[in-house]
# Entry
Amino acid sequence: MLGLQILIDGFAISALYGLGAVGFSLIFGVSGVLNLSHGAIMVVAAVTAWATAGDLGFGTYGGALAGVLAGFVLSFATYFLVVRPIQGSHAIPREEKEIFVLTGTLLWGIMIQQAIAYLFFNTPKTVRPLVEGVVNIAGVRTPINEIVTLLVSWTAIGLLWLLINRTRAGKALLAASMNPRGLTLLGFEMANIHCVVWAIYGVLAGIAGVLLGAFLGVSSDNIGTLTASAFSIVVLGGLGSVSGSLIAAYVVGYLETVTAYLVAPSVRSVPVLLLLVLVVYLRPQGLLGRR
Amino acid sequence: MKARLHLAAALPFAAVLACLAAAPAGAAEPIRIGVIAEDASIPGSAIPNAARLAAEEINAAGGVNGRLLEIIDYDNKSSAADSVRAFQRAAQQDHVAAVIASYISEVVLALEPWAGRLKTPMITPGAASDLITQHIRDDYAHLKYVFHGYLASTQLADMVCNAAKDLLVGQYKMKTAVVMSEDAAWTTPLDEEYLKCLPRIGITVVDHIRLSPDTTDFTPVFNKIEGEKPDVMITGISHIGVQPTVQWAQQHVPVPMFGISSQATSSTFWKDTNGTADGVLFNMVSAPDVAVTPKTMPFAAAYEKKFGVTPSYAGYTAYDEVYMFAEAFRKAGGTDPDQVVDAMEKTDWVGTIGHIQFIGKDQPFTHGMKVGPGYITGLLLQWQNGKQVTVWPQDVAVGKLAFPSFLKVGD
# Structure
């Protein structure tokens, strides 16, 4: 019974972690950007879904869509207001741009965090579940929302896979992550490719934020933890490797769930951090990393 | 050129003279009260709001000793370090006559020595740790400037047990409980008292769980509690509240929650939890629907009219505290800190939370509030269909206990 409970809960939370991390990983793989405002974008999506569903009367589904849209818009805002100006700046030496982008997105995330706390308080908000109620799976009472979270996460990840492997734009993304110079020589505009990847990222982070808001609830105080969690998963899986991120998401999700159930909920993230130290020490490129 | 320089030098003096001439005769400096609070949290945001409301009322009635009250608000971002800096600024630069500070025990404990060092009277509208009053008792000469404007954790636990005796044991014949509290300074004495007073009323405590305030996924906690089959969960939560409540309802955890849940004390809780708070039972010392005193309901209504939500528990106390300080300034004939402390010790004030008198220096809970019949008695409320309904004590209750269908509570 407890085993099945861990299996179900771990699967759902891992799917959500995976969804949150693939976008983060994709951005790094294609454009070399480590977006430290990742958690902020997820939380904005969740808070927008919460506020529009209730106060503005959009309803559960309208609110969820508004949340995803907010993730999409904020992702573009991050790219055009923070990342691109730094990348295009002549005042910043080329070799320092990565660190400037890192700092820029971190500060942007903090600004968003303060704005959310100012406008909506730092108390957690919970998005209405897309489907209410519970089902009994072999004696384990499971909220239907948990199953919905799992299905939506995997559908989004599946669609991303199709997009990357079956469409021309997707293949260009893949090529950009392997050899951006070659792609430029073939006549592709890198700026356009970056726009596409930030758009995909925005939708993925938006969906992940809304689902997280419905599954566990989020507050502006969670922003740092969410970014750190995505970062840990991506480092564990290998920076830039989407499939590595998915595997790492399940390793992290299950390790946390098992710890929370069998040891104590208060130490759920400790083994993951230890594992991360071990991986960085023994295999710095991560599970499936190339660089 | 020289003449122009002289003219330039004379201009600032002329401006100052003009300002002095423009000031109305007899206008005195306002008396400043500093409010150090967690502006971005549900319980904390009510503190400056309620303090301003009280100051506006006092000023409209002519102020204190011919002077107006001015509230200076410092957002401490829930940080003890920020609070200490704010306190130093309030006392040394802004020259406040008194400070109303925070609902977080860790913050108030950090400020306590500063109130002593800077000889600035301070009161907390919401922190609960027993250590606050214990420190005053142990070092009265230095810490006499500190007053406890909310109840100590032990007193709160006793109130919860009194309510549990009538409602849970009396009405529902409950026999077992799990104590579930967040890991914080205020819950250490709270839990100690829960573990003593629950067995006294006939409830066996089958487990005692302390949660990290960083917990976001409560599924394993509820899973463990459900496995122990208690009749009720006795809560001690303040920094957390929305997430455990929502997950409790979404997962249909069949054990009712009863006790202290600070976030549940504001009307925003219903919206933040999307209505899943239905059935949650929580302690308060005053409520919008009960005339604890003739001042309670008018204050709650005025607050709701001005801010769109009902005050959190710390709003009621902060409102009373501005009035108590105003009264102390009046009696002291000014803002001399030692005289204000003397006057505060003689407080005999009917506020929104009850009849307030402070406990003397040689007794337990020094500078804490007297509790019991004739003073502060406490209430128990339940969220029912979007409203906070007072269900205990019976003589003031406006509704009966009602539980959502997923809770297995036998009548």
In short: The mean pLDDT of chain A is 91. The first strand of chain A starts at residue 134 and ends at 137. Chain A has eleven helices and two strands.
